[in-house]
Amino acid sequence: MRIIPPLYIITPTYRRPEQIAELTRLAQTLMHVQNVHWLVIEDAKEKTPHVTELLSRTGISFEHLLAPMPESYKLRKGSKPRGVSNRNRGLEWLRENATSGVFYFADDDNTYDIKIFEEMRSTEKVSMWPVGLCTKTGLSTPILKNGSFSGFFDGWIAGRKFPVDMAGFAVSVKFLLERPRAAMPYKPGFEEDGFLKSLAPFEPKQIEFKAQNCTKILVWHTQTRKNEPALAIDTAKYGNTNLIMLRQQIV
Ligand code: UDP
Ligand code: MN
């Protein structure tokens, strides 16, 4: 019997009006994937009850963990290292609990074709593939010329050794475990590059190309419009109605 390698999906998330909508979509994508273990890691001090409830009714095997962004980064002006504490918590969990398989950083707001999960399952070291809707160029991908690697296409190269999107690569658990210091830096814009560099020794020529030699887009860096927190319900007017229960489900 051939055993299919487990997939560990590391999802950073945080409380906001869109959170449950995003996680519902991702949960119902993952419900189509075999042998998956979902690490849902909240940037929060306490677990959001609606997240706990959603996770338990999907039937997906999961961990619900917490990893608040350190205060020093939260207070900083300008761009913040979004999802970094969460992803590092995921790596820590893998080091303590996983021995084989593949892991992938799947943000809660992206759009995933379920085929991408079967593509990444065979990763031996680090695999990569194209990501749609990424930066103004609309695309981030390794470039293959006559089938051989010849660099990266991305709207923002910025001197990065690995100018790729978070949604564009997966890593073998064994490969990670052989690199006890690998981690993601708290460096906005350089999270992917910093993490992939921390996997040294690892060079671009070792990348395994997926999605039919990087000719198919199976994941999209979608972004949801931000919604304002909902207004309070007038309890004097709607006290004994369904609106009270519904309002509790909305941030
Ligand atoms: N995120 C988080 N804390 C934050 C902001 C974002 O945990 O303060 C998570 C978010 O849920 C997502 C990931 O980090 O899974 C990337 O954030 P976002 O989608 O806002 O970044 P973008 O895609 O715009 O770079
Ligand atoms: Mn996003």
TrEMBL record:
Catalytic reaction(s) noted: 3-O-(beta-D-galactosyl-(1->3)-beta-D-galactosyl-(1->4)-beta-D-xylosyl)-L-seryl-[protein] + UDP-alpha-D-glucuronate = 3-O-(beta-D-GlcA-(1->3)-beta-D-Gal-(1->3)-beta-D-Gal-(1->4)-beta-D-Xyl)-L-seryl-[protein] + UDP + H(+)
Binding locations of Mn(2+): 109
Active site residues per record: 192
Cofactor annotation: Mn(2+)
GO molecular function, one term: galactosylgalactosylxylosylprotein 3-beta-glucuronosyltransferase activity
InterPro entries reported for this sequence: Glyco_trans_43, Nucleotide-diphossugar_trans
Enzyme Commission no: 2.4.1.135
Residues annotated as glycosylated: 213
Any one annotated GO CC term: Golgi membrane
Domain of life: Eukaryota
Pathway named in the protein's UniProt entry: Protein modification; protein glycosylation
Location within or outside the cell: Golgi apparatus membrane
Keywords tagged on the record: Glycoprotein, Golgi apparatus, Manganese, Membrane, Metal-binding, Signal-anchor, Transferase, Transmembrane, Transmembrane helix
Membrane topology field: Single-pass type II membrane protein
Family: Belongs to the glycosyltransferase 43 family.
Name recorded for this polypeptide: Galactosylgalactosylxylosylprotein 3-beta-glucuronosyltransferase
Organism encoding this protein: Ranatra chinensis
